[in-house]
Structure formats: structure tokens, C-alpha cells
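User: Second chain of the day. Same drill as before.
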Amino acid sequence: MAALDKTYEAFEKPGLLQNYKVSNVKIFKGSLVGVNASGFLVSMAHGTANLKFVGVAGETVDNSAGSAGDKSLNVIRSASFVYKPASGFVPAQADIGKEVYANTDWEVQISTSGLTTQYKVGRICALETTSTGASGVRIRIDDYAQ
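Assistant: Same format as last time:
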């Protein structure tokens, strides 16, 4: 195929927000989400094999009564978010800059201990309080969301 010899419109779409088809599940706003082996969006969980982390759910979508792909969800792919430390992980100032793994769709940890599958979802950039009032970690997902 020859190189371009005139202007070509590549239909740029900023990568901060991406729309994905949802599996036959309910996904809550703020969930860490990934695509499964079939290419449909699901909540992150270390016990689920073959996920690819894609970002954070920007809205709640319930497709539990539908077929996979019936509904779509906007996913935020670049930003920082506050999540709950998984059981056994007590965040400390020395953890700033460390990578975290998804335990559930809203719990993270720095250790791979106890994880069936290891999904890196970000890097700790601050210690903060979650929206539920628990201690938490702010993670930056840039460069982790595929």
C-alpha cells in the first residue's frame, strides 16, 4: 500500500474516556473495570481469569438482565482515584509510588499475596480517606489502563 499523498481524517478521539460494551452484569460507578476474554466489560476481581484492566467506571450500568453487549458504559482511562486498602494492607507514607493490584472492584493492595490473578491497576500517589470514611489510597491509573 502506498503512503499518503493527501490529507487523511483519522477521526481522533481523546483517550481519557472510552465506551465499552458491558457483559451481562451490573457495574457500579467508581468500580475498577476490565474487559474479559470475550471483550466485554466486567468489574475487576482477582479471582476472575483473563481480564485486562481498562479504567474506572464513570457511571452505573445494570445489564444483569440483558445479554452481553446490550448496554455500554463510559470508562475513565486517565486520572487518580481513592480506593480502600484490601484486608491486611495498612497503607503507610513509605508506600507512595508503589504499584497496586486489584483485589476487588474497589479494594487494592501492594502485595500479590492471596491473589489468584495479579492485575496491576495503578500507583499510589497519596494517602487519603475514601468516600465511605475509611482510610484509603489515591492511585493514578495512567499507564495501567489498556
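The chain has a mean pLDDT of 94.

User: Great, on to the next one.
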